[in-house]
Design goal:
196 residues; elongated; 6 helices; alpha/beta
Length: 196
């Protein structure tokens, strides 16, 4: 009998990506502290947050395979942009991104409860934005799209209008690098193709 797969995330984008590849799963919201109180570098922060989410859900389950992820948007100088707290904060973030290249890092965690396997890895993608006018920034914020996304934009929706170039995994930018996830499943000796 196949093990049940759980996605430890409330993100509709992560759920959508798993559905696009046909991976049957149950989505479960977990609450963990994602603040960078220890001053971790961005890649370690993404890994740590993903690990915490996976482990929090693992405590609640007797069996199954757990997937968790955490995405951070990083400017030059290792400045991390989280989700905007309000519209002015979204405008500030978009002002920093427009006309520049930034890095999107997603940490992934995979736990197989029965096997006692816990793996994690991260992916990194470079994204270059076109310059944006104030009117474009205002219009985009008014769509509401930036408000629940790290860095205040979504590549998979209207935000793609302003992205000039993506170097690396596009699904990483959306929030779940499915190619890396596949490699983690293989490393854990789980045949993901049986679930598709």
């Amino acid at each position: 009998m196949k093990k049940k797969i759980y996605l430890a995330s409330k993100s509709p984008r992560r759920k959508d990506l798993l559905e696009k590849i046909g991976l049957l799963h149950e989505q479960v919201t977990v609450d963990v502290d994602e603040e960078n109180s220890e001053g971790l570098p961005p890649n370690q922060l993404a890994l740590e947050n993903a690990r915490k989410k996976a482990e929090e859900l693992a405590k609640q389950l007797d069996s199954g395979i757990i997937i968790a992820a955490d995405t951070v948007v990083v400017l030059q100088g290792n400045i991390v942009l989280g989700k905007p707290v309000d519209k002015p904060d979204a405008a500030r973030m978009l002002g920093l991104l427009q006309g520049n290249t930034h890095t999107v890092i997603t940490g992934l965690a995979l736990i197989d409860k029965e096997k006692g396997i816990s793996l994690n890895a991260y992916d990194s993608t470079e994204v270059t934005f076109y310059p944006m006018s104030d009117d474009e920034v205002d219009w985009y914020i008014e769509t509401g799209e930036p408000m629940d996304k790290a860095g205040a934009y979504g590549l998979q929706e209207k935000g793609m209008l302003f992205v000039q170039k993506v170097e690396g995994s596009a699904t990483n930018v959306i929030g779940l690098p499915v190619q890396l996830l596949y490699q983690l499943f293989k490393k854990a000796s789980i045949d993901i193709l049986e679930y598709l």
